[in-house]
Amino acid sequence: MKSLFEEYGGTYTMQGDYYLPNLTLPAEEERPIGVWGQHRLRYLKQHHKVLYYNLLTSGKLHSHLADTEEQAQALFYRLVKEYAEKEGVTEQLKSIDQTAWVRKMNNIRNRSSEIVNAEVVFV
Fold first, then answer.
1. Residue 90: helix, strand or coil by DSSP?
2. pLDDT digits (tens, 9 = 90+) for 11-42
3. 3-state secondary structure of 119
4. How many CB atoms lie within 10 A of CB 49?
5. Which of 10, 25, 66, 113 could join 59 via S-S bond, C-beta 3.0 to 4.6 A?
6. Residues paired with residue 18 on neighbouring β-strands, in sequence order
7. E strand spans, 6-117
8. Residue of 42, 52, 36 lying closest to 119 (CA atoms)
């Protein structure tokens, strides 16, 4: 008769009176996770725990966060560039009136961040 351990395979560690399986996650490709990925991680932990744990236990959490980071960065830079062109925020304005340029660029960056959060990070 096969023991329980032989039937299910794997290795086990005794913790008190119980045998617990030695589980490991599959290796993932190392890709950078920046601010957007960290925001996504916090959002998943707080508001979508099932998705968070599914990604974590399947070994896909890191790649999901890295993909989110890449998508968010691309959208953010594209929006900043488009808004700056549309609103005439140029290097010429920067050389003429730095304060106005900084004010307008901060406004553009803040609007772009809100859009990225709404469309990529917090969905």
1. coil
2. 888 889 888 877 776 666 788 899 999 999 99
3. helix
4. 10
5. 25
6. 15
7. 12-15, 18-21
8. 36
